[in-house]
Specification:
It is globular, with a radius of gyration of 18 Å. A ten-stranded mixed β-sheet has the order 3-4-2-1-5-6-7-9-8-10, sandwiched between helices. Helix 2 packs across helix 5. By secondary structure, the protein is α/β, with parallel strands linked by helices. Helix content is 27%, strand content 20%. The relative contact order is 0.15. The chain starts with 10 loop residues before the first helix and ends with a strand. Strand 8, helix 6 and strand 9 form a beta-alpha-beta unit.
């Protein structure tokens, strides 16, 4: 299959404006989500960020009502005593929720989206996460928890995760190379899905996207990467066939894709109710919609 990379600067000309709710599990003030917000917005989308007030990595699908802050938000981005939900005074589209990723994205969907979009969002994006979310890690990932919560609410969702990086504040400058690269890749996948038309994904379906390591010497530019359709978990003896592509009916696991030399990005199709692999029929929808950017692993 051909690999077509769309430069972010051209995306506003190629895709319609889409209402997107953006969340993560690393916190609203972590650099990754702020840069992704900027990239998605520059691509012509209307984006509202609704993410935890603090780092909630590894909290899966935990969900409790938000509470008043008993300590400052991460990186001192809001003071002790702040209300359960709040926003950046210079940009009210940047919102925190003092709870878990699931609680945060639901607030974005049910409260913020009607305020900014006049109704529910058209798409939910989670990430990009600090660290990969491969295989069974999806069961405990808060980023995946946010994406699957959105899908359960009827909003097509994508979860993005990057191998390189650590928890850093939104104020860090210069922006590290890997952050811009992962944001560029995330925007490319999102824009490709949007350009495919509605419905973006079947009901109860989400995409799990994982980026391999990126450095100034290896996989430095977004153009260095190739996207591969994958599966989340290993296939057991009783596992049904995957969608037919790349000459077979068994997709490579995301671990295999990300671990293959050559800057390969895994894109898996998952069910929100199990956080596991979707059926071949559901995989086929993603294959059709993203086919223009998908490649095969080297044999």
């Amino acid at each position: 299959m051909r690999s077509i990379f769309l430069a972010v600067g051209l995306l506003p000309l190629l895709t319609q404006s889409t209402n997107i709710v953006l969340s993560n599990d690393d916190g609203w003030a972590e650099l990754n989500i702020r840069v992704l917000y900027d990239f998605l917005t520059r691509a012509g989308n209307s984006v509202v960020l609704s993410a935890p007030a603090d780092n909630k990595s590894g909290t899966g699908s935990s969900d409790i009502p938000a509470t008043v802050l008993t300590k400052p938000c991460e990186f001192n981005s809001c003071p002790t005593g702040s209300p359960p939900q709040g926003f950046n005074t210079s940009n009210p589209r940047l919102n925190y929720v003092n709870s878990y990723p699931v609680t945060s994205i639901r607030y974005g969907i049910q409260t913020l989206s009607p305020r900014f979009f006049g109704g529910p969002p058209e798409l939910a994006v989670a990430g990009f996460n600090v660290g990969a979310n491969l295989g069974t890690t999806t069961l405990i990932s808060g980023t995946v928890g946010a994406a699957t919560a959105a899908a359960k609410l009827g909003i097509p969702a994508l979860a993005f995760s990057g191998t390189t990086g650590s928890q850093i504040a939104w104020t860090v400058r210069p922006i590290p190379q890997y952050v811009s690269t992962y944001a560029d890749l995330s925007t490319n996948v999102t824009s490709t899905l949007i350009a495919s038309g509605k419905p973006f994904l079947p009901a109860n379906i989400w995409l799990n996207v994982n980026f391999p390591a990126s450095s100034t010497g290896t996989c430095a530019s977004a153009r260095d990467f190739k996207f591969v359709l994958s599966r989340i978990n290993d296939a057991g003896s009783g596992t049904g066939a995957d969608v037919r592509t790349c000459g077979g009916t068994r997709l490579p696991t995301e671990r295999k894709v990300v671990g293959t030399s050559g800057c390969y990005v895994s894109i898996s199709v998952g069910r929100a109710d199990t956080k596991g692999d979707a059926s071949a029929t559901e995989q086929a929808v993603a294959l059709r919609k993203l086919g223009g950017i998908l490649r095969c692993l080297p044999s």
